[in-house]
Amino acid sequence: QLQLVESGGGLVQPGRSLRLSCAASGFTLDDYSIGWFRQAPGKEREGVSCISYVGGIANSADSVKGRFTISRDNAKNTMYLDMNGLVPEDTAVYYCAAGRVGHCSGNADEYVVWGQGTQVTVSS
């Protein structure tokens, strides 16, 4: 069974940092393009950051560039999202995902394995 299990969400004050983790089981994460998505209340799910299977090219949404960093540890079969300089607008449920596409994609339809989601709340 292909599975992604997330951890690391929570309540954090504006300006602080948070790291999300996503452990894969049943498959090798390095064989997939990977991504982080988020969904705020009343809004559509949006792509945050991704790393392509081909070439390991990373990309991020303009709203998080320079603040969020996606990475993966192949030895641990785990992906991460390091979030710095958090602002209230970053409040959302965050999802990790893996897809059998060669490129880095912000299109949720191209991902076939999803984590359960973890809540991140940025508030003073």
Descriptive report:
The protein has no helices and 11 strands. With 124 residues, it is mainly β. The strands form 2 sheets. Strands 2, 4, 5, 6, 9, 10 and 11 form a 7-stranded mixed sheet that branches. The chain has a 4-stranded antiparallel sheet with strand order 1-3-8-7, with no helix packed on it. A hairpin with a 4-residue loop joins β7 (68-73) and β8 (78-83). The termini are far apart.
Brief rundown of the structure:
The protein is mostly beta strands. The protein is built from no helices and eleven strands.
What is the chain-wise order of helices and strands? EEEEEEEEEEE
Distance between the termini: 40 Å
Tell me the major beta sheet: 7 strands, mixed
Mean pLDDT: 95
Number of helices: 0
User: Radius of gyration in whole Å, from Cα?
Assistant: 13 Å
Helix content: under 10%
Secondary-structure blueprint of this entry?
Blueprint: E1 3-7, E2 10-12, E3 18-25, E4 33-39, E5 46-51, E6 58-60, E7 68-73, E8 78-83, E9 92-99, E10 113-114, E11 118-122
Parallel strand pairs: 2-11
Antiparallel strand pairs: 1-3, 3-8, 4-5, 4-9, 5-6, 7-8, 9-10, 9-11
Structure keywords:
mainly beta, seven-stranded mixed beta sheet, four-stranded antiparallel beta sheet, globular
